[in-house]
Design brief:
Blueprint (H helix, E strand, L loop, with lengths): L13 E5 L4 H12 L3 E6 L9 E5 L8
Parallel strand pairs: 1-2, 2-3
Length: 65
């Protein structure tokens, strides 16, 4: 899917994405970031998160995570 991304589409929105530093989660965080959202993601490893993405290292598959 291609198309123009409106950089104001999600301006002011806050988005939480689990696993947002790799694979599909990374694509989701990148898309929301490009559209102006503020994003928090939890991931086992920080990885390469897009700008505007706050990464919290955590394993959400455990109670301690």
């Amino acid at each position: 899917m291609t198309g123009r991304i409106d950089p104001e589409e999600f301006a002011g929105a806050r988005v939480v994405v689990s696993g947002g530093t790799r694979g599909l989660g990374l694509a989701v965080t990148a898309r929301f970031a490009a559209a102006g959202a503020r994003i928090v993601t939890a991931a086992r490893r920080a990885g390469e998160a897009p700008a505007r993405v706050h990464v919290i290292e955590a394993d959400l598959s455990t109670a301690q995570g």
